[in-house]
Amino acid sequence: MGSVRACGYSPIVVVRASRHHRVGGKNGLLSLQPQGARGHSISWVVRAGKGPPLLPPKKEVVEGGGIISACFVGLLTGLSVVIFNNVVHEIRDLCWDGLPSRGGLRELALENKWERIILIPTCGGLVVSLLNVFRSALEDGNSGLKALLKAVAAAVTLGTGNSLGPEGPSVDIGTSVAKGVASLFDKDAQRELSLKAAGSAAGISSGFNAAVAGCFFAVESVLWPSPAAAESSLSLTNTTSTVILSAVIASVVSEIGLGSEPAFTIPNYDFRSPTELPLYLLLGIFCGVVSLSLSWCTSWMIVATDKIQKTLGMPKAVFPVVGGFSVGVIALIYPEVLYWGFENVDTLLETRAFVKGLDVDLLLQLIAVKVVATSLCRASGLVGGYYAPSLFIGAATGMAYGKLLSSLISHLNPIFHLSGILDVASPQAYALVGMAATLAGVCEVPLTAVLLLFELTQDYRIVLPLLGAVGVSSWITSWSVKSKDNSPKPDTDHLSMHNFDQCITKKLLVSQAMKTQYVTVLMNTLLTQVVTLMLAEKQSCAIIVDDHNLFIGLLTLGDIQEFCKLSKETNKIPEELKVSQVCSINDFCETATLTPMMNLHSAELIMNTHGANQLPVISEDLPVGILDRECINIACRALATTEYLSTLTN
């Protein structure tokens, strides 16, 4: 790494990229291809080249080719999801065969079940770990094989009972099918986006046998956040026919292959009186808080896993095994956290015969342990989605809330005579609404959540409570996301980081997006020199190192300003203030760190957890760069634009 030292010593060092790497691309177009040894700084060089003129995208008109492609996407996705679910069921039956009733596992004596409860999820984690290692070793061109291995890893994760869900993998399957169909038939970028939306809709439709909810999921998760949709003439109207057609076909195929029964047994919904609506709004608040707890717990687990990996030097392949073992240990006391399809949701809703209902105390405990188990599975590298855990947590929240309400009103009724004013529905009614509210809060799909529960219940009376609770829960989670931004960020137009889906941020590494020009200072550097250099280098922070260039901390301009306010009461002359004095106060200069090989999705989660706008990138205790939110935004925009341009030149 380059450094400038005068006369053997200099308190301030400006570090610049030490190695340039060639950037290639078809026809001279930009292609992000990081090269170089681990720990080296990486910068990009753009070469001019000849290529076809870039014409403005044409407005899409849904033609016969697009309709046929949508039919293929729906058919293939439906078949793939049916196969995926059958594989999950076969693995589950093979592993858990012999238990008297999976829903009644709580009633079984501990000595008769502890070996299987611990070993089965652990072995599942071991298999997933091997699949992840093989998948990461494949080259980028083997996207089809990677998708297949990921689906197999998800089937093993779910079949062995680990606490995730099948809907995320189903959507991934639909997206992969759409990508394959688009590469064969439709090279147009706008139509490729339409097929991606159609594949996502087909994944949800076949997973829940709910075509309408699948269509709205495609709109909320694919079309609205898409940069291509925002920057081109693509409109929702142009893709409606493909999305609907694909969702309907996938739902029909799923109904033929998996049956027409809903994913879980729906209890009879009863809506007693309009005076009950405020109680559903209060339930929405609780579900919003629970949704935030799941998001926060997952982020914290990811950060903790990264710290453990860096501190102990543990390979990533170990963590899925640890995650499976942890789920097994939790399931010894709370077997309901294991994934057995939606049988556990039926247990919560008390719709399973001969299964004892759960009291309020146990329901509240299940909410907490399910949040922990799901976060452990996600952070450890097990493969699955959030839909099933969200529905479980929401059902437990709604049931506990409904039972508490019933108990409270029964005690107050003799005193205040509430029976004529307030008639409360059964706890199952609140559980159904809680499922939608939690799903909307966790997965940020409020319209999908409302329509999914409406399709499953087929009862118009649930719409108003659903809209109220889902709206409140979504508002709480969205407000929390906005409040995390403690300081204003550069306005980089409407394509903010939140508009890029996770598949883009997971493709890019920190080394591809980080700034390789940064400032390093020593502990005895004067603050006036630090501020002067920050201004000269247009940087808002400096990395603190020791004499051997080993990382110590991060000093921001905000830290210096805050320190100056605290120093007004002293008689120290500003020129005498040093970096070490700033670091000696509270948590100044302490910061989380990133690694070059970490993907941007994990990096953003760490930033959100710590409320940071920039973090240092460290390799073997040496600083190699700075990553801020603008870097992430630019890298994602560049990759999205590159993929879009590649479709125009193919």
TrEMBL record:
Membrane topology per record: Multi-pass membrane protein
Biological-process GO terms, alphabetical: chloride transmembrane transport
Compartment list: Membrane
Keywords assigned: CBS domain, Chloride, Chloride channel, Ion channel, Ion transport, Membrane, Transmembrane, Transmembrane helix, Transport
Pfam families according to UniProt: CBS (PF00571), Voltage_CLC (PF00654)
Transmembrane segments: 64-84, 279-305, 317-342, 386-409, 429-454
Main subcellular location of this protein, as a coarse class: membrane
Gene Ontology CC annotation, any one: chloroplast thylakoid membrane
Lineage: superkingdom: Eukaryota
GO molecular function terms noted in the UniProt entry: chloride channel activity
Domain CBS: 514-573
Family: Belongs to the chloride channel (TC 2.A.49) family.
Name of the protein in question: Chloride channel protein
Organism name: Helianthus annuus
Lineage: Eukaryota, Viridiplantae, Streptophyta, Embryophyta, Tracheophyta
